[in-house]
């Protein structure tokens, strides 16, 4: 089997796993934070919307920068965004905990 196909398979697997792990857990956490159902739906569907918007431009970027560089930077950006998403969720849960704790004593 070609080495590049294996690398592409691993990239696709990691990308799908990152989205698949976050999307089932997000609604329950977002409800605890106080987001509405429409806001939760918009946040989850924003991945598909961004994918739809970015797809026509990806061909030009592939040929100008190079496919390997684009895939490498895409994986790096995706990992950073997943960590940022996790940090934001933890921060919002922490704020929710602090404010609910403060309001107990008021």
SSE class: mainly alpha
Strand % is: under 5%
* Oligomeric grouping of the chains: single chain
3D shape: elongated
The topology string of helices and strands comes to HHH
- Average pLDDT works out at 79
How many angstroms does the end-to-end distance come to?
66 Å
Number of domains: 1
How can the largest sheet be summarized? none
Number of helices: 3
Measured as a percent range, the helix fraction is: over 70%
Uncertain spans: none
In total, how many beta strands?
0
Radius of gyration: 18 Å
Structure description:
0% of the residues are buried. The protein starts with a helix and ends with a helix. With 106 residues, it is mainly alpha-helical. α1 packs parallel to α3 and α2 (37-65) runs antiparallel to α3 (67-104). The model has no long low-confidence stretch (mean pLDDT 79). The chain has one domain (23-104). It has 3 helices and no strands. The longest helix is centred in the C-terminal third of the chain and has 38 residues, at 67-104.
What order do the helices and strands come in, and which of them pair?
Blueprint: H1 3-33, H2 37-65, H3 67-104
């Amino acid at each position: 089997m070609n080495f590049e196909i294996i690398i592409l398979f691993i990239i696709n697997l990691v990308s799908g796993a990152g989205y698949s792990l976050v999307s089932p857990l997000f609604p329950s956490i977002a409800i605890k934070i106080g987001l509405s159902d429409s806001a939760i739906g918009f946040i989850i569907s924003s991945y598909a919307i961004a994918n739809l918007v970015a797809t026509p431009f990806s061909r030009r970027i592939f040929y100008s920068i190079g496919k390997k560089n684009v895939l490498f930077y895409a994986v790096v950006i995706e990992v950073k965004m997943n960590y940022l998403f996790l940090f934001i969720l933890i921060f919002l849960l922490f704020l929710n905990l602090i404010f609910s704790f403060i309001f107990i004593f008021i």
